[in-house]
Amino acid sequence: MSVTSQGTDRAARLARAATLTDGKICPPDRATALIEAVVMPGDRVTIEGDNQKQADFLAAALAKADPTRLHDLHMVQSVLALPDHLAVFERGIASRLDFAFAGPQSRKLAELVTNGTVKVGAIHTYLELYARMLVDLTPRVALIVADKADRDGNLYTGPNTEDTPTIAEAASFRGGIVVAQVNEIVDRLPRVDIPCDWVDVVVPSPKPYAIEPLFTRDPAKVRDANVLMATMAIAAVYEPFQVQRLNHGIGYATAAIELILPTYAAARGLKGKVASHFVLNPHPTLIPAVEAGFVDNVYCFGSELGMERYVASRANVFPVGADGNLRSNRALAQVAGQYACDMFVGATLQVDPQGNSSTATKGRITGFGGAPNMGADARGRRHDSPTWLRAGEEAGDPLRGRKLVVQMVQTQQPNGAPSFVERLDAFDLAASAGFARPPVMVYGDDVTHVITEKGVANLLRCRLPAEREAALRAVAGDTEFGRRQSPEASEDLRRRGIVMLPSDLGIDVRSATRDLLAARTIDDLVTASGGLYVPPAKFRKPAATPATTNAA
Amino acid sequence: MSVTSQGTDRAARLARAATLTDGKICPPDRATALIEAVVMPGDRVTIEGDNQKQADFLAAALAKADPTRLHDLHMVQSVLALPDHLAVFERGIASRLDFAFAGPQSRKLAELVTNGTVKVGAIHTYLELYARMLVDLTPRVALIVADKADRDGNLYTGPNTEDTPTIAEAASFRGGIVVAQVNEIVDRLPRVDIPCDWVDVVVPSPKPYAIEPLFTRDPAKVRDANVLMATMAIAAVYEPFQVQRLNHGIGYATAAIELILPTYAAARGLKGKVASHFVLNPHPTLIPAVEAGFVDNVYCFGSELGMERYVASRANVFPVGADGNLRSNRALAQVAGQYACDMFVGATLQVDPQGNSSTATKGRITGFGGAPNMGADARGRRHDSPTWLRAGEEAGDPLRGRKLVVQMVQTQQPNGAPSFVERLDAFDLAASAGFARPPVMVYGDDVTHVITEKGVANLLRCRLPAEREAALRAVAGDTEFGRRQSPEASEDLRRRGIVMLPSDLGIDVRSATRDLLAARTIDDLVTASGGLYVPPAKFRKPAATPATTNAA
Description:
Chains A, B: It comes from Bradyrhizobium commune. The structure is a homodimer. Chain A is of the alpha/beta class. Chain A has two domains: 13-204, Glutaconate Coenzyme A-transferase (3-Layer(aba) Sandwich), CATH 3.40.1080; 219-508, Glutaconate Coenzyme A-transferase, CATH 3.40.1080.10. Chain A has helices spanning 3-18, 31-38, 56-63, 83-90, 106-114, 126-135, 164-172, 224-238, 252-267, 287-291, 308-312, 330-339, 371-374, 386-394, 425-433, 465-474, 480-483, 487-495, 522-528, 537-540; strands spanning 44-47, 73-79, 94-101, 119-123, 141-149, 155-156, 177-185, 201-204, 245-248, 277-279, 297-299, 343-347, 350-351, 357-358, 404-408, 449-451, 456-458, 499-500. In chain A, helix 3 links the parallel strand 1 (44-47) and strand 2. In chain A, helix 1 packs antiparallel against helix 2 (31-38) and helix 16 (465-474) packs across helix 18. Chain A is globular. The two termini of chain A are 41 Å apart. Mean pLDDT of chain A is 95; it is low at 543-552. At the A-B interface, helix 1, helix 6, helix 7, helix 12 and helix 13 of A face helix 1, helix 6, helix 7, helix 12 and helix 13 of B.
């Protein structure tokens, strides 16, 4: 599109929108009409779908559009979380998709790809998708979400800033149209997160936006095996590598680590020496470590439902503005996770003989989210640290250090499926879905440690693929994968320090139990927070409850 | 620092500042007093030192502070460009430094490191430094720079947005104090780049901030050898790998490529097929390709002096806001360069037998800037593209693609020094400066192609270090490095498609000359821009002129 036609096109779209708005404000009952006015067939459109908050009202408004007016849209969005995110394809409004994660919609998405309703461009990590939104997947229209707006269109996101600034910047500086749904319109915002120049239309939504507490793990569900593996992680990695700057995945494995920092790690004299700087959402399970003074700094991708007051009261640890509330930023946090952290600790469903791991299973297209970005050696990194240098030395690299990438995986999944497999399901998924490459989450040659309930494999010390495979079989325990190797071969790896059993690390398996947890229930977390943490309903009641919505 | 003391501390600093300001505005003659009021001994302080624009007035004001009041500061800044950036160390105000690039101050910095005046924490790439500013190098005070402010403290950066939003976010959401120097205070800004909630004090500076046109290459200085190498790059890499999304380094090698896109590449039918999406500052040498419709999109780290009106008039190509001016963003552009580009093309001073390259020389500590981030295989990347897949296939990787990393280097530097060396000066520099690792700019195992005036080495096809070394010697020509290999060995690599000579690529060396350039002088660029490009004085006059300042 030429410069003149682009300017004319934007002006024409805004002129059509102006017939529906009062200044920048569009009443919610005109939301679909607004979208039909500003979106054109064939447009690239982004719906803000974060890990947590959702532009759900605008997603629904788009899904109600007339497919004879709006069709062939190319959706570019981080997360497919809501049924409406797929309804736009089922109704013939959109046909192409570039995305990063499709957790709850992964099975439905696989069906729609198979029957040709959705044509996927590529599956990205978050950071890749933002990058492409600036380069070749620039949105013509962005449907974003914030807590509050003023009448000029300035936006306040509250603690869940997440993707909003990045999407708004990508669209508004490409002649795109930015439409924001907000929970309320106020005279004066607590702070401005997105300047009004970047926002064209504001729609007050009838209900607060949907938001999910995805990063809350109930300490009551942490099992003894998780604690045992957590003690091994601290004794085999955190302590010898002096890991201060790190990122944790979600799941009970890392929740257990967070919960034994003030007990097990503190007893080993590690306070101030390890785990002092996190890039992490405000996990409730981090509260005891924060209160124990273990944690200096947490930079956040997003917030976590129920943690708002606690985080606001700990401005010395979390990124809090002069207004007193968290500002998160997923794009910058992904950068921080990649380049300011010496270690990523994650969990997985399947590991193959080369250490490749994946959460992909047949019949589901889940995508990648952020883990591959954090769970890769950052080869562009040039600054050193004791951790990074030691990892490089153990890997035998004379020229550069290495990032620690730790996978925590029990030898059996909770459903009884083996975690170590000769071939990842990801390979079959790639074949059936027509992907050019299998959706590997973390590649084996980037993994430095695999920890099971049996032991720790230090892959940094493996010089050959066969040695790496042997190390993995040695920690796979009494599984088919593990039994393929002789006990003598495993014992040899142990003598060479490649494989470590709990006893090698001075860990008494009988005492590595839930007794080590600094909090054993959600109530304990509330108490540790001084009553500032307010758990969402689903974590307060034993019975399942419907999806929580934002209480703002 | 506890949450309470952090809040009290910030309030106390702001209360001291309030005695010097009228609202948020501080008169320039009180700038040093202001800095002494808001900075405390031992603080981490950042001075905005971008690639282009400089917070020069605030840097000078800090350098004038009383060292008995302000001492032991820890400076965290992207670029050391100005004498005042080192004066703070020489005067005993600061003692520690974490940084990314020290171009013009590299020799002086090396002296101050050697004599113990400056203690360097680490040398970073830009993206790493921003990441650490969010995690463990959070600034207590940020001294930033913008074009204009309003009386509330909202900031307008103009086209050179660069690092300002990232630094402001890092400081203001950590209880830090943000002080901005601006060229003028106005009633209404063209747009808001930094919301006023993030800015504590504004200082109108007596002179517009210093800014350098670092990315302008005069076409008159492009030599025939540059053009020959540019034709090889297009024939051996851009065309067969169908490279659409890319980043260019600075220098005459890539300037030559930019200038033959509308001639040589267009004649090969490549318009719309290669080099359509750039992550790049607005290089004046890109004007002919933009005007020829070769380029769809350029996302920018910063702007370039003299290109303001041209860029504003090409909003279909560059990121331009509703106010009609470019907004750049170095942090997001580094992300885009890493994750949305299939290729980085750079130049270097020295290459060793394994393809490691560096611009480091003895007696200078230059730092890294951004090249290592772009010039590394992005192992966290998961989305595919034809370019990325083909590079992975040529490298024999069944599981993932590869980023193309191309080094353009003449076998001799303009000063006659050999470019191919048995050992990089970077190794000696590391030994003499006490670095833990040599400052390698791009590692050999990340490089995919090396192009000299003699030929192209495709390192993707080399399976062993010895083969890579042989391929490099084959393109080193009649140099000591090249003569260490028999012509037969080089001929064997050529037969196997690892080494390509110009004739193998269908290039007639006699016709690969300056005649191919779409613009041969700065005046030609002005003409191509329709008079919209306004070259800075140093490019208009033959004689050397003093450093250009911003004409805003």
